[in-house]
TrEMBL record:
It comes from Chryseobacterium phosphatilyticum. This is GrpB family protein. It comes from the Bacteria. Pfam families: GrpB. Gene3D superfamilies: Beta Polymerase, domain 2 (3.30.460.10).
Length: 200
């Protein structure tokens, strides 16, 4: 498979704001942080047109409060990932209600994932729920803000993505491994910069 990207689209920011308002109606009373992350959050960076959203909850105990609150809406909860990533709850937001597309609202650990659900054309967003005290929250926020404020790093990332998009990949995970050395290197710099920047 080849990974295809779209040039940066200002509509992505509008889509995030719309989904954020929708989420606030369902989970706002928990006072979560709701942040736009990933390549669609960085102006000028090409990306797959799926919005990455990170919901920051106060602690681990709040992780499992989110799935029931989003049930019945345009979200599919991947409960099957909880075992490998117990610090995170993961959802995708679909273009239509899950049952209208023939998908379950909850995908449990041993469920066979419906084939069509892998089609990114049916997805609007990926939603990651993580405690704000987690190192994963820190690194996502740091890397996003680092790319936004360091154009030379953003341009290097853009060139890498363009290069990788020309290659054939077994699947999305295989492609992500191609980006991994760059991301790990720059994330370390980003976290250090972010923590120093916060102190000022």
């Amino acid at each position: 498979m080849k990974v295809t990207f779209e040039k940066y689209n200002p509509l992505w920011k509008e889509q995030f704001n719309s989904i954020k308002k929708e989420l606030e109606k369902s989970i706002g009373f928990l006072h979560p942080g709701i942040e736009h992350i990933g390549s669609t959050s960085v102006e000028g960076l090409s990306a797959k047109p799926v919005i990455d959203i990170m919901i920051g909850v106060n602690d681990d105990d709040e992780l499992d409060k989110i799935p029931p609150l989003l049930q019945g809406q345009d979200f599919v909860y991947y409960e099957k990932y909880n075992e490998d990533m117990p610090y995170r709850r993961f959802f995708i937001k679909l273009i239509d209600r899950p049952h209208n597309l023939g998908f379950p609202e909850i995908i449990r650990l041993n469920d066979k994932i419906p084939e069509g659900i892998h089609d990114h054309k049916l997805r609007i967003a990926h939603i990651h729920v993580i405690p704000v005290s987690s190192e994963h929250w820190l690194r996502h926020m740091a890397f996003r803000d680092y790319l936004r404020t360091h154009p030379e790093v953003k341009d290097e990332y853009q060139r890498l993505k363009e290069l990788l998009s020309q290659k054939e990949w077994h699947d999305g995970n295989d492609y992500n491994e191609g980006k991994d050395p760059f991301i790990k290197r720059e994330e370390k710099k980003a976290v250090q910069w972010y923590l120093e920047h916060q102190k000022k």
